[in-house]
Amino acid sequence: MSNFNTPMHQRRLRRSLTDRYVAGVLGGIAETYDWNPTLVRLIFIAVAVLGTGTPLLAYVIAWFIMPTE
């Protein structure tokens, strides 16, 4: 599903049901902003490894807050 032609204020951030490995959070982010899902995952992993663990906590929180498609 492409959101490129959808105005920014009408886009809804949702967990992906089709592009998911764990909970679909990163796939949903990629679908919402029309980004490459692999790139989103690689950036997330890099930030999680180099960071303090905050991205992992943010992922778990997003898992419970974000609705599914």
From TrEMBL:
Residue ranges of domain Phage shock protein PspC N-terminal in the record: 11-69
GO cellular component: plasma membrane
Record membrane topology: Single-pass membrane protein
Keywords, in A-Z order: Cell membrane, Membrane, Transmembrane, Transmembrane helix
Subcellular location(s) of the protein: Cell membrane
Pfam family, one: PspC
Alphabetized InterPro entries for the sequence: Phageshock_PspC_N (IPR007168), PspC (IPR052027)
Transmembrane segments: 42-66
Stated name of the protein: Phage shock protein C
Organism encoding this protein: Corynebacterium humireducens NBRC 106098 = DSM 45392
Source lineage: Bacteria, Bacillati, Actinomycetota, Actinomycetes, Mycobacteriales
